[in-house]
Design goal:
Oligomer: single chain
Helix content: 40-55%
Structural class: alpha/beta
Distance between the termini: 69 Å
Radius of gyration: 34 Å
Shape: elongated
Number of strands: 10
Length: 625
C-alpha cells in the first residue's frame, strides 16, 4: 500500500532523491493495494546446493520469518514421476505445519494437473488426500504448457476435475505457471482465466529463467492482468541470471504483481529475488508499505546464513559484511566525527538501524592524515603535531600491511590500540644510547645518522626523530644515497635464518660492515642485540617472500644481481605486504629502467623502509629493548 504522501514511512531513515516521488514517476505505477510479499525462503533454502539445514534449522528460519512479519509462505512437494513425494520436500512440509507458524502456506505439487498428454504414477486425488491429511489448506497445481490443442482440452478437463475434488476436500487453490516469458501467451492466458473462473484465488507467474527484462516485465504483467475476466492477485517469481532479480521483481510490482522473494536470494543456480533488497527498495525508493518489521531483516539474514551454512557475501547489498563498513578515508573521518548514526547516513542512502544493522569503520589500505586526526580526537588527543600525525599514519598503515591475509585491515578496537601504543612511543624522548642503537638497526650510514641527529636536535621526541630521518633520507646527496643502498643486504643473502632478505632489510652487509664509498671509514661490527632486532624486522618485512620456492627466490636473486650490475646500486623494495610474485614482477619492471628513472624510485623505497623500521623500533617493545 502506498503511503498517503507516497514517501517512505519511517522518518529520518533514508536519504533519497525527491525525484523518486514526482508525479511523472509515480503516475507510471500500479502497485497492488495492499502489496503482499510471497516468501519462498524455506523452499529455496532446501533447493540451494550444499546447504546443511536440519529440520530444526528450517523451523528456526520459519520462526525468524514469522517474527519479520511474513504471512504468505510457499513450498514445493514434488513427485517427479515416482509414486511418493520427495522425502526432503515432505519433511519440510511436516516441519512447517507442525511448527504452527502464522503462515498462509501455499504448497505447489506436480501431480495435480498434467500437460494433457503425459501422466504421473500418483493420481490427483491421492495427492489431494495426502495434502489435506497433512494439514495443508492451500494447494497449487502447476499448469504446464500443453503440446497441442487436444492436450489442452484434456488439461482443461483435468483442471476442472481437480477444483471439484479439492473443493470437497476443503482445499483452497492457487495456480502456478512456469516459464511464463517463453510460453505462448494466448494459450497461457486462456488457461489462467479458466482457473480463475473455476475458483483460483491467486495466479503465480514464474519467469523461471529470467527471460523478461525489467521493462518487458512491466508490459507483460499489465497485459496479463488486463486479459483476465476477473481480477485476482497475481505474483511474479524471478531468478537472478543477469543480476536483475530485484529489478525484475520491483518492475512486476509496479505493474500490479506481488513479488515472490527469498531471504539472502537463496535458491539454486545463481539465486533468486532477495527479500531484503526488494523490501528495502520498495519501502525507501517507492514509498510502499510492505508490512514487515524492517528492523528484523538483518537478524533473519543471519539466521538463514547460519542454518543453511551458506555465508552472506561480504559485498551483498544491505546485509553483507561490507554494506555499512566504512574504509574510504573521507567516510572514516565522517563516521568518527559525525557518529555512526549520522543523518544523512555516511555515503549511504539508508540508516543501517532501520534494518537492524549498524555502521562501522576499519583502518584499511587507504588512509589519510585526516583519519589520524579524527581517531586522535576520539581517543582524546586533539593536540597532535604534524610530525606525530605523519608517523602515526605510517604506524597504522604498516600494521595493516603486516596483516597476513584477507581481510587486511584493523577493526576499530585494533586501530585504537595500535594508535595509543604508537602515540605513547612517539611521545617518549629516547636516551642517546637507545637512539644510536635504533639508527644503527635502521640504517648504519654515518653521515646520514649525523644529519638526522642534527635536524632532530637534542632531547628530541621519537616522533621528531622519525620526522628528521624522513626528511634527511629524502634529501640525502646521491653519493650518500648509493652508499646507504649498499648497506642493504644483496638479494638472496641470509641473516639469522631469514632466507632471501635483501628485499627490504637495510641492515649492514655482513661481509665486512664497512661503508662502500669510504665516506665514514670503518664502522664497528653490529652488536648481537642489533643483529637480533634486524633479523626480527627482516622476518616481519619479508614474510610474504620467505615461503616462496627455491626457483622463484633464485630468479629474484638473479634479476636483483643484474639490476645492481647494470645500474650501479643495489635493488631494494619495501616488501611489507608483498608476496614473492609481487617482488619478482617489481624487480623485472625496474631492471628495465635507466638510472635517471630508477634512482628516485630506489630513494623512495629506502625512505619507506627506514621510516617503517624506525616507527616499529620506537613504538613496538618486542623489536628492540
Amino acid at each position: 500500500m502506498l503511503n498517503p504522501d507516497r514517501r517512505p514511512h519511517v522518518p529520518g531513515s533514508h536519504s533519497v532523491s525527491p525525484v523518486n516521488f514526482e508525479p511523472q514517476v509515480l503516475g507510471e505505477f500500479d502497485f497492488p493495494a495492499p502489496l503482499r510479499l510471497i516468501d519462498s525462503t524455506l523452499r529455496k533454502t532446501l533447493f540451494t546446493a550444499g546447504h546443511t539445514t536440519s529440520r530444526l534449522g528450517f523451523q528456526r528460519i520459519a520462526e525468524a520469518l514469522a517474527e519479520l512479519g511474513v504471512r504468505d509462505e510457499s513450498i514445493n512437494v514434488t513427485w517427479t514421476g515416482a509414486d511418493h513425494p520427495a522425502p526432503q520436500d515432505w519433511a519440510l512440509l511436516q516441519a512447517i505445519v507442525e511448527g504452527g507458524f502464522p503462515f498462509r502456506l501455499n504448497v505447489y505439487t506436480d501431480t495435480l494437473v498434467g500437460n494433457g498428454r503425459d501422466h504421473q504414477q500418483t493420481s490427483m486425488r491421492r495427492t489431494v488426500d495426502m495434502l489435506a491429511e497433512a494439514g495443508v489448506t492451500t494447494a497449487a497445481p502447476g499448469i504446464l504448457e500443453a503440446p497441442d490443442d487436444d492436450a489442452q482440452k484434456r488439461q482443461l478437463d483435468e483442471l476442472a476435475d481437480y477444483f471439484e475434488y479439492a473443493g470437497r476436500a476443503g482445499l483452497d487453490t492457487t495456480t502456478t505457471f512456469a516459464q511464463v516469458g517463453r510460453r505462448d501467451f494466448g494459450r497461457m492466458l486462456a488457461m489462467a482465466d479458466h482457473a480463475v473462473r473455476l475458483g483460483a484465488r491467486r495466479l503465480d507467474l514464474m519467469d523461471s529463467t529470467s527471460s523478461l527484462a525489467p521493462e518487458a516485465m512491466k508490459l507483460f504483467v499489465r497485459r496479463f492482468r488486463a486479459g483476465l475476466s476477473r481480477q485476482v492477485p497475481v505474483t511474479m517469481h524471478v531468478h537472478d541470471e543477469f543480476g536483475l532479480a530485484t529489478a525484475g521483481a520491483i518492475a512486476a510490482a509496479t505493474a500490479g504483481a506481488h513479488p515472490d522473494v527469498a531471504m539472502n536470494g537463496m535458491s539454486y543456480r545463481c539465486g533468486f529475488a532477495p527479500l531484503e533488497e526488494v523490501v528495502l527498495a520498495l519501502e525507501t525508493l517507492y514509498g510502499v508499505d510492505t508490512g514487515l518489521h524492517l528492523e528484523r531483516i538483518q537478524h533473519v539474514a543471519r539466521v538463514v546464513a547460519r542454518e543453511s551454512g551458506v555465508p552472506l557475501p561480504a559485498l551483498k547489498p544491505l546485509t553483507g559484511g561490507y554494506a555499512y563498513l566504512k574504509h574510504m578515508p573521507g567516510d572514516v573521518v565522517a563516521a568518527l566525527t559525525q557518529g555512526q548514526g549520522a543523518f544523512p547516513p555516511v555515503s549511504h542512502g539508508l540508516v543501517p538501524a532501520r534494518m537492524g544493522q549498524e555502521m562501522t569503520w576499519v583502518w584499511g589500505g587507504l588512509s589519510s592524515e585526516g583519519m589520524v586526526r579524527a581517531l586522535g580526537a576520539r581517543q582524546g588527543h586533539d593536540d597532535l603535531s604534524g610530525a606525530e600525525v605523519r608517523a602515526l599514519r605510517r604506524a597504522m598503515d604498516t600494521a595493516v600491511a603486516a596483516v597476513p591475509g584477507y581481510p587486511r585491515w584493523l577493526d576499530p578496537q585494533q586501530a585504537a590500540a595500535r594508535f595509543d601504543q604508537a602515540l605513547a612511543g612517539l611521545r617518549r624522548v629516547p636516551d642517546p644510547e637507545r637512539v644510536g642503537r635504533v639508527l644503527d638497526v635502521a640504517c648504519p650510514h654515518g653521515p646520514w645518522q649525523e644529519r638526522v641527529l642534527a635536524r632532530a636536535g637534542a632531547g628530541a621526541s621519537a616522533a621528531d626523530l622519525v620526522d628528521a630521518a624522513w626528511q634527511e633520507t629524502g634529501a640525502a646527496p646521491v653519493p650518500d644515497l648509493v652508499a646507504m643502498l649498499a648497506h642493504c643486504k644483496p638479494m638472496a643473502a641470509t641473516a639469522e635464518g631469514t632466507g632471501p632478505d635483501g628485499t627490504d632489510d637495510t641492515g649492514t652487509d655482513r661481509t665486512d660492515g664497512s661503508d662502500t664509498d669510504g665516506a665514514e671509514g670503518t664502522r664497528p661490527a653490529p652488536t648481537a642485540r642489533e643483529e637480533t632486532a634486524r633479523a626480527a624486522l627482516s622476518r616481519r618485512e619479508e614474510s610474504g617472500v620467505l615461503g616462496a620456492d627455491d626457483g622463484v627466490r633464485r630468479l629474484i636473486a638473479e634479476l636483483a644481481a643484474g639490476y645492481e650490475r647494470d645500474l650501479g646500486f643495489r635493488y631494494v623494495v619495501s616488501s611489507a605486504g608483498l608476496g614473492a610474485q609481487d617482488v619478482l614482477m617489481d624487480v623485472r619492471i625496474r631492471s628495465a629502467r635507466d638510472e635517471e628513472v630508477e634512482l628516485p624510485r630506489a630513494r623512495q623505497e629506502l625512505r619507506t623502509i627506514i621510516d617503517n623500521r624506525l616507527i616499529q623500533l620506537l613504538t613496538l617493545s618486542d623489536v628492540i629493548s
